[in-house]
Structure formats: C-alpha cells, structure tokens
Specification:
This protein is of the alpha/beta class. It has 12 helices and 12 strands. Strand 5, helix 7 and strand 6 form a beta-alpha-beta unit. The longest helix is centred in the last third of the chain and has 23 residues. The protein is globular and about 60 Å long. The protein binds pyridoxal-5'-phosphate.
Amino acid sequence: MTASTLKPLARASVEMPASGIREIVNLVIGMKDAIRLEVGEPNFATPPHITEAAHQGALSGHTTYTQSSGMLSLREIIAESMERLNGRRVTPGQITVGVGGVQVMSAVFLALLEPGDEVLIPDPAWPNFGMAVRFREAAPVPYRLSIRDGFVPRVETLEALVTPRTKVLVINTPCNPTGAVFPRETVEALVAFARRHNLYVLSDEVYEQLVFEGQYHSAAPFDPERVITLHSLSKTYAMTGWRIGFVIANEEISNVLMKLQEPLISCVAGPVQKAAEAALTGPQDCVREMRDSYRERRDAVVEVLKQHDAYLYTPNGAFYVMVDISRSGMPSRNFALALLRHKRVAVAPGSAFGQSGKDLVRVSLATEKSKLIEGVKRLCEYVDERAGARA
Ligand SMILES: Cc1ncc(COP(=O)(O)O)c(C=O)c1O
C-alpha cells in the first residue's frame, strides 16, 4: 500500500502549526559557540535533595503504577503547600498531577472543550495554549496585550471578543513571554468578566514563585468553582526534564481529569512523584536563591537595554524580557534567524507568541549572567546596525 492510498491523518493535528521557538532551537543545537537565550529553561541543576528522593523512591519500590491523578501522599503535600503559599484550601480530590504543566493543560482542554468552542488566549502567550485548543478542533481567540500597559490585560478590550461559543478565558501571571505580574485588581476583574459571561478561567500560575517585585495573585480565591489553576515544578525547582506539574479544579472537573489521565499517561512515574514530594516539603532556600539570581540578571539586562536606548519596560516576574526590534525593519522570525546567523545569539521570535509579538523577540534570563549580557549587547548592536543600514 502506498502513502497516497492510506486514509488522511487527523486534520486538526496535521494543520496545527509547529512551535515557532522550536525552529530556532533546532538550528542552535549543534552550534557550539552560540549564546542561547531562546528557551525557557532554568540553567540550574535540580537541587540534590530532590534528585536523591527520586533515587530513594525507585530503590524503595515506587516503581509501579500509581493513582492516575497522582499518589495520594503527593496530592496531600500539594494541598498543604498551596495553603502555605497563598492560604488556599484545596482537597487532594481537586488535584490532578500530570507529565508537566503542558500535559495537564492539554487534559483540561480535553475535559472542557467541544469542537467549535472558542477560548480567549492572551497575545502574546505561551504557544502551547493555542496548540492544545486547536487539536480539540476549538478556536483560540487572541486578546491583545500591549507593551504600553506593561502587558497587563485591559478587561474592557475582552468584551467584544465574547460569542455564544466562548467557553474559557486563559490568563497567565507571572507571564511567559512578557514577565508581567498582574495586579490584584486586574486578576479580580478578569474573573468577574468570566463570571459575567459564564466562562471557565484557566489561570496559568506556573511562575508563581518567580516574582521580583510586589506579589503574585492567584485567580482561584475570586471564584474557586470556575477557576482552574495550572502549576508546575519545572521552573520553581529547576525540574523541567522531570516532567511534573498539576492542576487544581473543582471536583467535577477533577473527576473527569482523573479518567482522562488513564488513557493519556496512566500516571506520572513514581520516583518523579517522590522527587516532587521532596521539592515541596524540603528546604526552600534553593527557590529563593534562583529567584535572586534571575532578578540580578533581569537588572543587568535592563541596564544594557537602557545603555542602547532600547529599554521599554521592566518585567516583574518569570524569567523573560521582550525586546523591541522594530527599528531593524525585520519581522521577528527573520530577525531571530539573522541574529543567530550573524551574531551567534539565539532568541525566540515574538511572532511565535502571537500577532502582537511581530516586532519583538523574547530573551530568556535563564542563562549564565556574563553570556546573557553579551547576548543582549549583540542583539542591541544588531538592531542598531540594521537601523543604520536602513537610514
Ligand atoms: C506559561 C507556561 N505554562 C506552563 C508551562 C509548562 O511547563 P512544564 O510542562 O514544564 O510544567 C510553561 C513552560 O514553558 C510555561 O511557560
């Protein structure tokens, strides 16, 4: 049988655009001399007590299937850690553990969406939201965030986007790719908007512990039934490769998620769940130290941007900064490809995060400081060179 006689693959999956960050990652892998500022991955090792707990977990027999929503002991620990972190009370039955925030986020969309439903997604946003909505044959509807507002949403701009098919509002604070941390009133107003239109809220809070100034505000307390919060150990504990995250939702949603996890993943690996327990119960100085280090790098990058007259705003959380490259006259993807080729610096094109990123690139602060500074200098110089060539 030849390929042409085979039945077509699923349209929604075939037509789903690939991540625009991947293109750069694939090119930079193997370029030994390049400075990598394109990926959102902590450059710290996982703290040793966490790795040791996984080792002990494997040795002591945590090598079998667990409950599909996660070991009860882990979910109890998560519930305690939520109470410590932001005073929120949840039961283990409201928690679903999955293979990173990515996987549980996709499971949430499977649980909530019918084909043709619409989901309000920030623009710019982490690309995976739109991808997961699309493979459900639902439609991502971008709502624009403006650099003029410090990338904080303006609730009044959302009203015009609501249709009878709108089902979910996605919010993300602290935000990837902008680093914005929303004020309490904004979070409250977003949830009130969702309530007015009877929408679910998927609140991505995976960077909740990476806040440099002020405070992060969870959306959950404003409407615990309607709001689903997404969390991850990846960024907080430098555990991206361990693949563990979780969502907290009302019990009805959580029961559906528990069923869905069975055919999707069965469960997260036992030793990884034990590592997560150690991360949440162990010493938290590692989190503080990493956060301090990101803050220091953020300050250094802001300084370089100021020196080059390229400063626009200061990100208050996560570990990213968006840089305006409009003076170069190049669309962000072309700019990112050219910067890599000519200056050996990899950044994520803003267009990978949505239309409003077309004149921006994202710089990740999760890189060793001297390389980061050198990379941002080369980036600014390249914008200057291109602007000079156009003048
Ligand atoms: C905004 C946001 N949410 C969720 C995730 C999921 O991370 P993970 O799947 O590693 O838990 C990421 C990772 O980059 C992210 O940036």
